[in-house]
Design a protein that fits this description.
ten-stranded antiparallel beta sheet; nine-stranded mixed beta sheet; alpha+beta; 705 residues; Jelly Rolls; disordered N terminus
Amino acid sequence: MKRKLLSILFTFTILTASVAGCTGGNIPASEVLPVTSETDSMEYHSEVAVEEFLGHEYMKEELSESNRIFLEWGTDIQDFYTELNADEGSVEFPETFDLREKNLIPEIRDQNPWGTCWSFATIAACESSLLNTLGLNLDEYKEKYGEELNLSEKHMAYFGELALPEADQYPEGEYPYNIDQAGEGICPLPKVKDSPLDIGGNYLESASALASGIGVRSEKEFPYLDSKGNEDDLGDWSIPESERFGSVYVLKNTNILPNPALRDKDNNYVYNPFGTEAIKSELMKGRAVGIAYYADQSMPAPARELIDAHIYELKKRFPELEKENLQKFVYYRNDVDAAKSKQYSDDELREMLKVRLKIYDIPEDTYNIDSLDTKQLKLLLLTGNLGEPLEEIPEEVNTYLSFTGENDSVWAQYTYEKNIGNHAVTIVGWDDHFSKDNFLADHKPPEDGAWIVRNSWGSNWGMDGYFYLSYFDQNIFIPQTYEFFTPEEIGMTEEKNSTETATTIKECILENDFMPAENYNSTLFNMPVYAANIFTVEEDMDLNSVSALTGDLNADVTVDIYRLKDGFKDPTDGEKVTSVTETFTFAGYHRMMLNEKIHFDKDEKLAIVVKESVMTDQGEKFAIVNTSALGAKGITFYRQRHNGSDEEVTKYCRGIVNHGESFVAYEDGEWLDWADEVKSFRDSVYGECVSYDNLPIKGYGAYEE
């Protein structure tokens, strides 16, 4: 296929699914928005006439519509790359490609015992991208730095889903952050495990965390273990608050790619080849691609030491059972060694069944064990209806996941209908010739071709931890990649070695938006519009870069930085000290380096002013991008809307927008305080259920030594 991604006609709200790692209760991850009479106009309502006023009248209407979609239909992505054009300069892709063959993918890891798939998928994508940035493979990285490339999923998952502490947790005057933003972020609701590691997450949230300076950190610093070095979900997995910020590598861009799975106006599946090409293009740049999809299985097994401890306890309770048969049964039930379990003989399966009957105190003569065939034996070993007549026990089969090849060695999934996204994984390659015959016989995809996908359930699951996912799977969501700066680009040239923990970069970050985004809103206008944040410098610093969020393909971003004068009246009331302009292919977070560092003294005020534009089929449009999430008042509304479903609300978000922090304006028009705009949104019928944050504009630098 030969295509080049260009521009879009209209911009949409990006809604992203939170995924809980298939551990049981998934947090808001709903069906794709159905098209109704109420929403038919959505394709066009992003456009606004030149004479329309920016503030309360238009923005309130626009964002209230987004809120209704967000609250009533959940948080699956509403794809916004809908009008893509072909052009010259296209790329020829190889028929097969695999980042593992280039030694760019670390070994498979296991997310047990927590629902942290989103963190594992994010970190896997980050690790491959870092190797590409550094121009190294895994062996070369170890040789250069004296240690394996292994970033911490725990640090990402813990602080990415935990709000800033409340001010009253510290003595007066000792709060470590901007006290005006105290308590902002994600607030977990009480659960059985009551841990931020088990409330799920998504790629927009991980991008928000990384953009705020929360990671990436090294596994050596924060291993995926409790305080005693165990994988016990009842242990203490907390991390000291002092370790929230800091990175071993610094995020440069996130790229939200076009989605291969779209819906038409009647909510029917439509395959989007541009999404497939965008994913392939990123893979060829050395960047693995994080996606969400519908997982056909739950996380299969707890940690090996917990399983062995369980076997030990069972042996004490049932000393008459042979340890070998007991171990085989427990391993089989927990899918500890998938390859071996598929090769058990019928006699071995019969002995394992006897063990299960004994443990569950069910008479052995309940079934004529010697007459059972392989299929029946496996059914009785896995069913939750053990003890019932064999003919009344339903077969337990996978709906979308198929097993083919010798000893069922090829694992492949094709979700042939709309479903709920519930798991995050990472694409590491593709095979255009992967046969559609490898999928379920009665539900084959329309053509050959599949992604090679890395899971986070350990190497005993699937094909050494991997599986194939059809190009035409109807539930691929939120493809996203991550790019990083080299240490030299941000002035860090120290090399790590085997005797030291990885060097942690502590930056000065000017930001007010500490609420991770579940929802991006990008609104297009016919005339130039501007967004700005104002910051007070806490210590002498040298500003070296700025960042903004985009919601369009090929967005042009211009950032002006002002040193504000005393008694300033608006974000441009002062000296413009520098400007930077860049174009970004994909929507996402983008950080731009300044041509030269700009020094600011303590207590000086500066403004970062952003102008975004995009060329569409109707000419140049201008964008305001903001973020939002489910607020505390939205919990009851959401539960009522989804009454009777298996969805679970596990968290809400708190955004704090104070006056004098964020502003929006037309060109040569009045600057409007974003706090007033947010108040107007909250006054709407849906707005009070949604939490808004400051505009996603940040500044970065180093404190003067």
